[in-house]
Specification:
globular, mainly alpha, about 400 residues, single chain, about 75% helix
Length: about 400
């Protein structure tokens, strides 16, 4: 009996090439991001990977990444939300009216705006989930409605500036916990104006956690006879990921440290990765997107999950709206215009399937960074907005074609 059990646990280890081919969608995306950054690093004469530009990448794309997390949940469930840009602009306008015109404090504005966003998402989710109205129609209507409400609320004018504490939501940085003398000494060592030890420390801690979790997963897979990635592939992948993480944290440390929005993004990314991959709700979301009828027959409350997915999207769009308004230091009627296209593109480029049931949080984040790096790199090179739109459209088309090709190949 023991002998049979050990044989059942013995799994043929794939070669590096076989494993990479089987996980091309996941790891190819990471390599694509590295290749794109290397390309723009050369084409911009080294500007792409400068400390100030890396910081700007996080600041400029934070709201896209935050909404991509919610959009991933919606798309995995088999739906889509076209209204996120308009909701983002509307919530920014609402925050401006409350703070600038009515002198509301930040502690009151923040929960009110997040609740408003969640209610907007819930209202749209209600029609999709319980009335079976196609999400394309519902959210297209929402896009028009909230674009109009933003214009009405702001009376066609920009409203600002915001209080300084609100601006810190987007433009603030985490204070360094080390003494100034130590930071100054490190800055002198690395030839920088300043050095934020907290940023580098976070990179070291994050690297240690990645290695620990990776080794723990390998040990668990081995114990249960589950197929795992080849050892050389595991080592190589971790070297690339940890090297990139330490490099970025070092660059941030030599500028102003960790942006507040980066911490917000990191916490949300970890939370949603755990939600989608390690919880019952997450597994049920994938089941609903994969086959809604089968999920319903198995006892999953598909309507409630769809409703919650849209409510969650509305809340994250509201958070993105607050961050975007804080970055601009003003609310404008055009805020959020066409942002939904970048958000949806980021999720599809990140490996999500149009038919639902497929997609990962890390993929959506990497997809958002690919879009952000392309926008940033092309702007530095002086490429016009017309050509930028064409290139981004072609990249999105290529990602969808790749998805369909893989699906047909597997089928």
């Amino acid at each position: 009996m023991t002998e049979e059990l050990s044989k059942s646990k013995a799994v043929r280890q794939k070669s590096v090439g076989e494993y990479f081919a089987a996980h091309l969608r996941e790891y190819g995306l990471l390599l694509a991001l590295i290749a794109i950054m290397a390309f723009f690093q050369v084409m911009t004469g080294g500007v792409m990977l400068k400390s100030v530009n890396i910081t700007n990448l996080f600041l400029q794309n934070s709201y896209i990444i935050i909404m991509a997390l919610g959009m991933l949940v919606v798309i995995v469930a088999g739906h889509i939300d076209l209204s996120v840009g308009s909701v983002m602009g509307f919530i920014g306008a609402l925050a401006a009216i409350l703070m600038v015109n009515y002198d509301w404090p930040l502690w009151a504005v923040f929960p009110v705006c997040l609740t408003a966003g969640a209610l907007i998402g819930a209202a749209q989710g209600y029609w999709v989930a319980y009335w079976s109205i196609p999400p394309f129609i519902v959210t297209l209507a929402g896009m028009l409605v909230f674009r109009g409400l933003s214009l009405w609320l702001l009376e066609g004018q920009s409203v600002g500036p915001f209080p300084k504490e609100f601006q810190l939501l987007s433009t603030g940085f985490i204070p360094d916990f080390m003494p100034e003398s130590m930071s100054a000494s490190l800055a002198e060592t690395f030839g920088a104006r300043r050095f934020n030890t907290g940023a580098l420390s976070l990179g070291v801690i994050g690297s240690a956690v990645i290695v620990y979790l990776g080794l723990k997963k390998r040990a668990r897979n081995k114990a249960y006879g589950i197929e795992d990635e080849p050892k050389s592939f595991f080592i190589g992948r971790n070297i690339i990921v940890i090297g990139g993480l330490l490099f970025i944290c070092f660059k941030l440390a030599t500028f102003r440290g960790l942006p507040n929005v980066l911490v917000t993004m990191a916490v949300l990314t970890i939370a949603y990765a755990f939600l989608t991959q390690s919880t019952v709700i997450g597994r049920r979301l994938y089941a609903v997107g994969g086959n809604e009828k089968a999920a319903k027959l198995s006892g999953i409350k598909t309507k409630r999950l769809t409703f919650l997915a849209f409510a969650n999207m509305g809340m994250l769009a509201a958070l993105a709206g607050l961050i975007f308004a804080a970055r601009l230091n003003t609310a404008t009627p055009k805020a959020g215009f066409a942002v939904e296209l970048d958000v949806i593109a980021a999720v599809f480029i990140g490996g999500a399937s149009m038919s639902g049931g497929v997609g990962k949080v890390i993929g959506a984040v990497v997809g958002a960074f690919i879009m952000g790096v392309m926008n940033n790199g092309m702007s530095i090179m002086g490429i016009g907005i017309d050509y930028q739109q064409v290139i981004k459209g072609l990249v999105l088309l290529a990602a969808v074609i790749f998805d369909v090709y893989n699906k047909n190949k597997q089928g």
